Amino acid sequence: MPRLLGVDIPGRKRIEYSLRYIHGIGPARAKIILEKTKIDPAKKADDLTSDELRSIISVVQNEFRVEGDLLREVSQNIRRLISIGSYRGLRHRRGLPVRGQRTSTNARTRKGAKHTVGAVRDKAARAAMKK
């Protein structure tokens, strides 16, 4: 299992798929990295030489924001939206969908589990509420 930028990438997979385990690198960026380093995308990650690993690391560090830096930047952007009081910032603060999705149904990922509000009709549940 080779280690790139603090992330263990799977060694038995092709390098074009293994690179995607690094936060901030997707299919397109993985192809760009392999083209710049002139590494065969079909090569397994375990079969990479130390020179090839070094070249991948140098390209990623010099040209892309990945892992901690990327996560920090995204969280700072969200904090900025919240502090200026923009609509998107309010949606982030309330834990609601930010990009215009409907909330009357669905949106369970952002809103969390359902919380029943109002009268409890079941007698056993009502008795438990009083205690």
Architecture overview:
- The chain has helices at residues 15-18, 27-37, 50-63, 67-84, 87-94, 108-111, 123-130, and strands at residues 3-4, 7-8.
- Strand 1 (3-4) and strand 2 (7-8) form a beta hairpin.
- The protein starts with a strand and ends with a helix.
- The protein is 51% helix and 3% strand.
- Strands 1-2 form a two-stranded antiparallel sheet.
- It has seven helices and two strands.
Q: How many strands in all?
A: 2
What spatial form do the alpha-carbon principal axes imply? elongated
> CA-to-CA gap between the ends?
56 Å
Strand content: under 5%
Give the key terms.
single chain, 131 residues, mainly alpha, two-stranded antiparallel sheet, 7 helices, elongated
Topology:
Elements: E1 3-4, E2 7-8, H1 15-18, H2 27-37, H3 50-63, H4 67-84, H5 87-94, H6 108-111, H7 123-130
Antiparallel strand pairs: 1-2
Concise synopsis of the structure shown:
This protein has seven helices and two strands; from the N terminus they run E-E-H-H-H-H-H-H-H. With 131 residues, it is mainly α.
